[in-house]
Specification:
Oligomer: single chain
Structural class: mainly alpha
Helix content: 55-70%
Shape: globular
Radius of gyration: 22 Å
């Protein structure tokens, strides 16, 4: 009946994606609000359950209750399933089920998949979905195995294996949920090279985007990559290295974060902090004790986020790259935006500018609202919380659990907008996508 109702409404792909995510979040919220999924056997309350469900489906990682101590095994498994659905995407999961049971993928479903996977055409989207499913489970399986080898000595075999599976999926999906307990995230493993390297590898792979991973496997050379993949790889490497150097320098002598660590620990912690800001949400140092300069750098990296078609959020690396390339072309007096001997279409550049503009506007609005609802928090904390939610990062300065009811609702909508995409929501609300039939005379406006 629901399927027939949706068909009668003639919803466009953007509307279906928005409603799909909202429905999964609602179901998750209802399940997590039951008393059977908590350690105490008492209901968490619908608002906190909905917040947790939204954070999981939107692969954010912000929590109002500690995941490791508040939820029992059933609750943690529900959260893990929600993370996997949110990371892969609703249409990817639905398509994989359809392929398993042998159902044919309709043209309408292919169009929705095209929108969900940020593809330019519907050609090859079903094949891409197969690659995504296989690639995801292979990478998560390898990560779970090696993480379990590190957790088993500390927690025993059954718990160590579950910890390995949970944190591998959470890391690859850039969710940032942990079940270590006590709100510590991965701080007990700050100087553990194995855990750090495995988690960072999962975060980076998840944030590259599935099309880029497949392109890298096929090409095995930067020169043979598509233009999209080249920009993603270049921006990813640049942002990680720049963040690593800056965090290392700024926190090197901070007694509350990295000063007491060995040189190996400092290098590892700086690299991990640079990687995790790409919307992953884990942390190995106390973020609240970082210098303000490091907090602002984290906000900037969280705002940029990962890459299109990945499990990461943010404005995306390619979006920021196109804006930078546009600035360079304007400064040089060129009419076209170019990279690697290719001219980038004006539509791509305009979309990038729109995404950044909408992102900045939405971020400003969220911070403005939080300053009215959260009277006891300082500005940098609220800015950090807002951008973390908008970029679906999950890093926090420890204020999430102190959010007021209105603050939680604001962050819920922010996480939702960050995961689904502000433009997707705008397209879903738009009444028509018809282009104007009238073109007015051109004129000029002074800028700058």
């Amino acid at each position: 009946m629901l399927k027939d109702k949706l068909k009668q409404q003639n919803l466009n792909p953007a509307q279906i994606l928005v409603l799909g995510f909202a429905l999964i979040i609602l179901v998750g919220g209802i399940l997590l609000s039951t008393p059977f999924v908590t350690q105490t056997g008492e209901s968490t309350g619908f608002l906190k359950a909905l917040f947790t469900s939204t954070s999981a489906v939107c692969v954010t990682g912000l929590v109002v209750v500690d995941t490791g101590t508040h939820w029992n095994m059933a609750g943690q498994i529900i959260i893990l399933i929600l993370i996997q659905i949110g990371g892969l995407g609703i249409m990817t999961m639905a398509t994989s089920v359809a392929l398993i049971i042998g159902r044919k993928i309709s043209l309408r479903s292919r169009l929705i998949m095209q929108e969900a996977l940020n593809q330019f055409t519907i050609q090859g989207v079903v094949r891409l979905t197969k690659y995504i499913i296989i690639t995801t489970f292979v990478i998560e399986g390898i990560g779970a195995f090696f993480l379990a080898m590190n957790f088993i000595p500390d927690y025993g075999v059954p718990k160590g294996i579950f910890f390995g599976i949970f944190h591998s999926i959470s890391a690859f999906c850039n969710a940032g949920f942990d079940i270590i307990g006590g709100g510590r995230s991965l701080t007990p493993y700050t100087e553990n090279l194995s855990v750090n390297f495995i988690v960072m590898s999962l975060i980076i792979l998840g944030g590259l985007g599935f099309t880029v991973i497949i392109d890298l496997i096929r090409s095995r050379s930067y020169k043979k990559l598509t233009l999209h993949s080249k920009i993603v790889v270049m921006m990813t490497v640049t942002l990680i290295l720049v963040g690593f150097v800056l965090f290392f320098v700024m926190e090197f002598n901070n007694p509350d974060t990295m000063k007491d660590l060995s040189l190996k620990g400092k290098l590892t912690a700086a690299m991990f902090q640079s990687v995790t800001t790409r919307t992953a949400g884990f942390n190995t140092i106390d973020l609240a004790q970082m210098h303000d300069s490091s907090k602002l750098l984290t906000v900037l990296l969280m705002f940029i986020g990962g890459s299109p078609g990945s499990t990461a959020g943010g404005m995306k690396t390619t979006t920021v790259a196109l804006v930078i390339l546009l600035i360079i072309s304007v400064v040089k007096g060129r009419d076209d935006v170019e990279f690697s001997r290719r001219r980038i279409s004006r539509d791509n550049v305009n979309r990038a500018l729109t995404v950044v503009g909408v992102g900045i506007s939405l971020g400003f609005l969220v911070v403005f609202l939080l300053t009215m609802t959260e009277k006891g928090a300082d500005f940098i904390t609220l800015l950090f919380e807002a951008i973390s939610a908008l970029g679906t990062v999950g890093l926090s300065l420890g204020y999430t659990s102190s959010l007021s009811a209105l603050g939680q609702i604001i962050i819920i909508f922010t996480m939702f907008a960050g995961r689904v995409g502000a433009l997707t929501i705008v397209f879903a609300l738009a009444q028509s996508d018809n282009k104007a039939l009238i073109r007015y005379p051109e004129s000029k406006v002074s800028v700058g």
